[in-house]
Amino acid sequence: MDTSTAAPKWSLLLTYVGLAIVTCVIVLGSWTRLADAGLGCPDWPGCYGSLIVPQTVAEIAAAQALYPDAPVEPHKGWMEMIHRYFASTLGLVILVLAVTSWSQRKRLNYPFVLTQGLLAMVIVQGAFGAWTVTWKLWPQVVTAHLFGGFITASLLMILLVKLRRMGCLVRPLKFSNLTPKTMRRWALMALILVATQIFLGGWMSSNYAALACSSLPACNGSWWPEMDFSQGFNITQTLGPNYLGGLMNSEARQSIHVLHRYGAVILGVFMVLISYRLIIQQDHRLRRFGWAFLVLFVIQFCLGLANIYYLLPLPIAVAHNLGGASLFVMTVCLNYLAFSSRGRLNEF
């Protein structure tokens, strides 16, 4: 490595810190949502008009008078506020990273544009966080907010890869029975399938359809139960109602759940195929991707089964959400490897 052209240590440190915090934000966000604490604070960015959750009798009485239709539940309020504290800290880290990157914007291969994109992404995420509360868990916003968190984590990972490559001579990839063009097709298909499955999972969670099918392997004793796809995938749901607990009927929820199940099977078949194609490559970087995809999907699939078998225990459901984020980040990194002109990943 040429230390004179290497990335500044402060940029690497901030990126590592950002990755650690965004992982916490994803875990805390899913924990808050799955514990039905998404409206633990009826306002934003504070909680009942304060930056901390009402605790004393007097504070609770004042908060209840301010929001008479939102009963004060301190434990749920703290879940929501702790998530916001971490999200705000992440925003601050990315802001510092973006501002300080201006001094590096003319350096060769410094990912200045990416740092500014991250800042824009975290601002958008802040807006979605506010709308999640003020629009009372509108499923469209909740699902988009989930995707935004996964995208933020992916951009931070790509930023880390780019920073670590600065000053390094990156070796070209070596393929076995696989052309770069074919590699790009496989990577893009993986991203499409993973993103679709994450959308189905997020849509299922935001519409409280995770327990619509409570048996395995069939859904409530049927491989194709009665389903209402028109309502289940109605993206024109109106603003205004409180969506806590969901408003769909059982047939609509079953349609979401069943599609997510079959989507997992389709994704599983594809993951086995792409993992095999990557594992047999000469380049150890591609082999690592192959093994990571295979192991991660098997864990994710088992967690999904456990969610149904054990009726959605909170720790397993949160782990399943984090597994989805990890799979998405891995897939984005593979696409960076396949499509970027300098996307030949250096040694990790």
**How would you characterize the largest beta sheet?**
none
Q: Give the overall form.
A: flat
- Distance between termini? 14 Å
The helix count comes to 10
- The percentage of residues in β strands lies in under 5%
Percent range for helical residues? 55-70%
Using the CA coordinates, give the radius of gyration. Answer: 22 Å
The ordered H/E elements are: HHHHHHHHHH
Question: Could you please describe the fold and organization of this structure?
Answer:
With 348 residues, the chain is an all-alpha fold. The protein has two domains: 169 residues, no CATH class; 176 residues, no CATH class. It has ten helices and no strands. Helix 5 packs across helix 10, helix 6 packs antiparallel against helix 10 and helix 8 runs antiparallel to helix 9. It is flat and about 65 Å long.
Q: Quick recap of the structure?
A:
The chain is mainly alpha-helical and 348 residues long. Helices cover 65% and strands 0% of the residues.
